[in-house]
């Protein structure tokens, strides 16, 4: 049974550190590896286990924010793992994966204590959407975390429109905020002036103006003044890079 992977697998732009821990019980090594890689690209911490009995022990001994369970596993099937886990842990969201797609199979999985049920094969983006939906319902901190971008001590909150560097509040204008957000979504990537103009100003690049250079300097002064590490670097004739 295969997992359908598309470019969405590597589409994450969030640069925050992993905060949400996912336990993945899947005996197909290839599928487990693909899921783990995709989730790590979207800033999740993932622990993989290939045996049902070992998975139950791990999930009972360690706290996870979400558990993904394959139904057909050696040692103990996912249905039984889910049942026993629910005897001691009523809150952790559980997403069940299986090749068994009949209505009765789905009902059995949900009645065992699973919160959602996804039939193989599936697209990774659907798996990710279901994970995020479960976390929104079960982990209030998830919604807040999704609003954050961070890099090198800078934390930008897209919801509250606030910026901090190493705990110090930084006041930015609306355009400076948009420009910083663009850099934070593209760390270690050279951004041309044309790219910045199109994505921060939503206009075609005008070679007769230095407005981008002016605003980059404004931003530099606000996020770098008083700090030892400089973050925005000029590549002469090419653009700017945050590193």
Automatic annotation (TrEMBL):
The biological process GO terms on file are: regulation of DNA-templated transcription
> Per the database entry, where does the chain bind DNA?
146-243
Residue intervals of the OmpR/PhoB-type domain: 146-243
Question: Where does the Response regulatory domain start and stop, copy by copy?
Answer: 21-135
Query: Which SUPFAM superfamilies does this entry report, sorted A to Z?
Result: C-terminal effector domain of the bipartite response regulators, CheY-like
| SMART domains with a match to the protein in the record | REC (SM00448), Trans_reg_C (SM00862)
Q: Which domain of life is it from?
A: Bacteria
Q: Which residues carry this modification: 4-aspartylphosphate?
A: 70
Could you state a single Gene Ontology molecular function term?
A: transcription cis-regulatory region binding
Record Pfam families: Response_reg (PF00072), Trans_reg_C (PF00486)
Q: Which GO terms describe its cellular component?
A: cytosol; protein-DNA complex
Q: Can you name this protein?
A: DNA-binding response regulator, OmpR family, contains REC and winged-helix (WHTH) domain
């Amino acid at each position: 049974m295969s997992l359908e992977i598309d470019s969405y697998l590597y589409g994450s732009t969030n640069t925050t550190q992993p905060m949400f821990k996912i336990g993945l019980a899947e005996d197909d090594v290839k599928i487990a590896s693909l899921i783990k890689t995709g989730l790590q690209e979207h800033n999740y911490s993932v622990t993989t286990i290939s045996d049902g009995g070992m998975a139950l022990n791990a999930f009972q001994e360690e706290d996870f924010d979400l558990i993904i369970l394959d139904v057909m596993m050696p040692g103990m099937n996912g249905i039984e793992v889910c049942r026993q886990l629910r005897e001691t842990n009523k809150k952790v969201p559980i997403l069940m994966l299986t090749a068994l797609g009949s209505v009765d199979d789905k009902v059995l999985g949900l009645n065992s204590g699973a919160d959602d049920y996804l039939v193989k094969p599936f697209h990774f983006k659907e798996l990710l959407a279901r994970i995020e939906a479960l976390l929104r319902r079960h982990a209030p901190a998830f919604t807040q975390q999704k609003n954050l971008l961070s890099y090198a001590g800078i934390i930008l909150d897209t919801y509250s429109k606030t910026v901090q560097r190493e705990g110090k509040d930084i006041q930015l204008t609306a355009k400076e905020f948009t420009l910083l957000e663009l850099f934070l979504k593209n760390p270690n990537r050279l951004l041309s002036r044309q790219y910045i103009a199109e994505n921060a100003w939503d206009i075609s690049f005008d070679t007769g103006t230095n407005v981008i250079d002016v605003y980059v300097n404004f931003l530099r002064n606000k996020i770098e003044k008083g700090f030892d590490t400089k973050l925005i670097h000029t590549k002469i004739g090419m653009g700017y890079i945050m590193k």
